[in-house]
Design a protein that fits this description.
Layout lengths: L1 H27 L2 H12 L7 H26 L7 H19 L1 H24 L10 H18 L1 E3 L2 E7 L2 E3 L1 H26 L2 E3 L2 E3 L2 H21 L2 H19 L2 H21 L1 H11 L10 H13 L22 H34 L3 H25 L17 H21 L2 H4 L2
Antiparallel strand pairs: 1-2, 2-3, 4-5
Helix pairs in contact: 1-3, 1-4, 3-4, 3-5, 4-5, 4-13, 5-15, 6-7, 6-8, 7-9, 7-14, 7-15, 8-9, 9-10, 9-14, 10-11, 12-13, 13-14, 13-15, 14-15
Length: 441
Amino acid sequence: MLANLRKEERSLLYYITAYLAVGVFTLYLGEPELNRAYELALGSGTKLPFWWFVVLLSIGTMLGFWLISAYWRLAGFRCDPFLMPITAGLTALGLIFLFRLRPQYAERQFAWLLIGLLALLLITTLLRKLDWLADYKYIYAAAGALLLVLPIFFGQEQYGARSWLRIGLFQIQPSEFVKILLVLFLASFLAENRRVLTAGSDQILGISIPGIREYGPLVVMWGISLLILVFQKDLGTALIYFCTFLAMVYAATARMFYVLIGLILFFLGGTVAYHIFGHVQARVDIWLNPWPLMGGSGYQIIQSLFALGSGGIFGSGLGQGMPNLIPAVHTDFIFSAIVEELGLLGGCAVLVLYMCFIFRGLMIALAARNDFTSLMATGLTALMGLQTFIIIAGVIKLLPMTGVTLPFISYGGSSLVANFVLLGMLLNISHEVNGGNETEH
């Protein structure tokens, strides 16, 4: 079974490697323009020639995935064979478009990718058994609250959000790692209180609801996270936290009561925030009608809509569009660049990859051996799916802009490393599902 799992994984990695090679070759056709952009960003004569730079980073990226797959086979790791190739495909696409859009950021992304792959390797080696993590739920809550508070006092503001910490030469976004701590806390708490939350201990209008002791810590954790993130102006992350909270509570209890109450709280909180906080009002106004603000705050979303519309079905071709007209296109608006140059079909292909990731994650959750790991897999998968939906909905103007990154594709070191940690934990659960931990004794 182990040989078949890794063989299937390797066969998919062949396709990803070929895909990355084709993308790099296509970029080569536009060498003069890209070479000038590279020299302008980094300074001519101070770095490797552009195409050595592209080829070395591309080889290093795929070599990292290949080596981890080979190590897993030697170590007897029985994880899902599809999740890592899906991740490799998304990462390769992100690297291609960083070469295309912001060559100077591709080098940094590659460095963060190596850190992410190292984190993936360590987690799948040292944390194959996850049951013991259920005993530390309040440590996760305390650590998460601390990580959220630190940027308020010591953080730096970027793109309108005060959520960054500078540590030496690096900048990290603690909220990316708090997402995982939130999932661990909720999985542990919900697994412990699942029966009470489902059956309820009190009655209101004939509806069974849990007592304050059962749902109190959940509401407190959600409220603290939401309030702190409002003060940080990082509304995208706050929305992800809230939706993940609702998804996990529903998965644990199967009661629509919690979802309805959560939606009411969301609309009430959103209405209050709109009238109190200027940055919330600005985001909503841009979402409703950006055209009067075309010369200012509405410029980014308008250029995104132009890019989406000009791509058509098949796109303008890699390197042939004008996505650089979108400010910060390499971060949360990279999906608009993909659709402009690869077309509607290319954008749909990206969505299918994310849907495959979510499908495999939910299958792992359904097959998990206990409530804690099942809820953890559900939460991690919901986190990935919600972040993807919220950012794509923002760039196509279905929702207000949020400023979160597209997982594995957008530039962002903290997000990339955190998503590899998420991937490693999902793979560990799938290893247990496939009987991996039993064969190790």
